[in-house]
Write a structure and sequence with these properties.
The protein is α+β, with helices and mostly antiparallel strands. It is built from four helices and seven strands. A seven-stranded mixed beta sheet has the order 1-2-3-4-5-7-6, with helices on both faces. β3 (45-54) and β4 form a beta hairpin.
Length: 141
């Protein structure tokens, strides 16, 4: 009953129950110099993929693509694992600003950002690739 983190591998996408656009976004950014991805696994189930994008010396942007089946089944494990990664980044990195984007229509994601300790900062108008607004949530060291 343990959860573990492992380096993301493109093969993990095959096991991820998530929207195709999320999967494509991960694969598009995988291997780019300013992106790092990790996978959260529990009892051989992929719970989700977490990403961190370096923006500048002060700021990184965090991504979470949960598996819509397994992350709900192991909700507490996914949340605790994500929170542990964020805390480790805050302790070990030079970043002082951590940001997290959530679609304005994704209420569950907004609640989760707050549960992870992020605060609403503002709305980015027509920000995503489909022209939808995004809420910016931030957390400081």
């Amino acid at each position: 009953m343990t959860s573990s983190l492992c380096n993301f591998s493109p093969e993990h996408i095959e096991y991820l129950n998530a929207p195709e656009s999320s999967k494509e976004g991960i694969l598009t950014n995988f291997g780019l110099k300013n992106f790092v991805f990790l996978s959260i696994i529990k009892d051989k189930f992929l719970l989700g993929i977490l990403g961190c994008r370096y923006l500048n010396n002060n700021t990184c942007e965090l991504y979470a693509v949960p598996d819509i089946v397994n992350s709900k089944k192991f909700n507490k494990t996914f949340h605790k694992s994500t929170l542990a990664i964020i805390k480790k980044l805050m302790d070990k990195s030079s970043f002082t600003r951590f940001q997290f984007l959530v679609d304005v229509e994704f209420n569950e994601g907004q609640r989760w950002a707050k549960a992870l300790g992020f605060e609403y900062e503002g709305t980015l108008k027509k920000y995503d690739d489909k022209g939808k607004d995004q809420f910016m949530y931030v957390r400081f060291k």
